[in-house]
Write a structure and sequence with these properties.
Length: 140
Amino acid sequence: MTTTYHLSCDCGNTTLTAHGAPEATLYCHCGSCRALYGTVMLAGTAWRDDRVEPPASDQVIDYRMSDRDMRRFVCKTCGVTVYGRHRPGMPVIPHSLFRKANGGELPAELAPTLHLFYRDRVLDVADDLPKSEGGELMGM
Ligand SMILES: [Zn+2]
Ligand SMILES: [Zn+2]
């Protein structure tokens, strides 16, 4: 049986659906993720394109970074980020959406498995997860 995640922004006007399992669930410390999401690290999941049904394009603002090919899609009513595209074919959905859909808890099967670009961090994290200094643990 395939897991289906029904996700939404805070106001509920923007919804997206993810099927099955992500390619990765992780923390990313790279400068691009920090800039794109405005946070000290991204906590998120990366998916195969054909496993995600994105929101209707007229429901979202398509924010594009000015200096690199990275995009973030925001509910145009409430302003919550619902997903990003860091490169073609790989939607990235923040853990926060899965928590919201699951009573505040991250579903156990989506627990992060590693830190990516840890050398670029602005905050140390004292956990036991593998820490990839760059992208090598993801084959990047
Ligand atoms: Zn909304
Ligand atoms: Zn990153």
